[in-house]
Amino acid sequence: MNHQNTTLKKAMIEALEKSLSVVTTACKQVGINRSTHYEWLKNDEEYAKEVKNLENIVLDFAESQLHKQILDGSTTATIFLLKTKGKSRGYIERQEIVTDADNFFKVEIIDDESKD
């Protein structure tokens, strides 16, 4: 790998971090095409690993913003947190059924309305 690519990749990682992983914004800042970024992701395992790690940084940032909103009294933020993190305590709107591929079941819909 040549020195210019190494420098551009480092700059791209920094730009992705600053832009919260918005690829178009980071590419414009570094001066590369989006296709170059995706080529690097495909062909450079270390680069792909660093980009993947940024996803956790972005999630951490978003969670910290959510916690700030909850502390500020946002009902919407509180409900969102409970629906996503409080499922084990019953804060759900729908039932999630998880099964493996070997277990199939039959669902029968019964129409209670009488047809004349």
For the record, give the distance between the C-alpha atoms at the N and C termini, rounded to a whole number.
Answer: 76 Å
Question: Low-confidence parts, pLDDT < 50 over ≥5 residues?
Answer: none
CATH architecture: Orthogonal Bundle
What average pLDDT do the residues reach?
A: 88
> Regarding CATH, which class?
Mainly Alpha
How much strand? under 5%
Element pattern in H and E: HHHHH
Q: What is the subunit arrangement here?
A: single chain
Number of spatially distinct domains: 1
Structural class, by secondary structure, is mainly alpha
Determine the fraction of residues in helical runs and give it as a percent range: 55-70%
The largest sheet is: none
